[in-house]
Write a structure and sequence with these properties.
This protein is mainly α. It has seven helices and no strands.
Length: 178
């Protein structure tokens, strides 16, 4: 029998080490491993955890790892998955900090980073569209993410206000529907 702590650490370490672009770029990998392969969560539970992790302060990738780890094995599971997620980034940043001075003016390295940027945008865009599909957006609700994005992007409204207003709106809508 596999040790769930070691299995969850390895899973999140692998996700952490192979993901460029931050927490949102990790969503497809986390979903593939946690929902499809290991069956630790259902698709609906994953969607709920994503929403909760986005709403909490802190690093999204760590938040979602903590929630999944806690779901698996309470506090020790949360610590295990958080460590698995954070350790690769810590090690990579440490190596970059140690050796970056030697490569910062290297044209090949600069070209590699320019090539990675569009791929990172795609890694973030795909889970965003998938979340939109799973959130069951329709002609009555599609305006919410569009207006929210425009308010943040064009008018500089803090995402915190968007989250608060969306939460209040969802609460009030739930009251009206009853």
């Amino acid at each position: 029998m596999n040790n769930i702590y070691w299995e969850s650490f390895k899973t999140f370490f692998k996700i952490g080490i192979f993901t460029l672009g931050g927490g949102y770029a990790m969503i497809p990998l986390i979903e593939e491993e946690v929902v499809n392969r290991k069956k630790w969560l259902s698709k609906d539970e994953m969607l709920d955890l994503i929403a909760i992790a986005q709403s909490c302060p802190g690093v999204f990738a760590i938040n979602i790892a903590i929630f999944i780890g806690y779901r698996l094995k309470k506090e020790r599971g949360a610590i295990t998955t958080a460590a698995g997620t954070a350790l690769p980034s810590f090690l990579i940043i440490l190596l970059v900090a140690i050796f970056f001075r030697q490569f910062e003016d290297n044209k090949i390295v600069a070209a590699m980073f320019r090539g990675i940027r569009p791929a990172v945008v795609a890694l973030i865009a795909v889970p965003t569209f998938n979340l939109g599909k799973r959130a069951e957006l329709n002609k009555w609700t599609i305006w919410i993410p569009i207006v929210s994005a425009l308010l943040i992007w064009l008018m500089g409204v803090s995402p915190i206000w968007i989250i608060i207003l969306a939460g209040i709106g969802g609460f009030l809508w739930g009251k009206v529907k009853r």
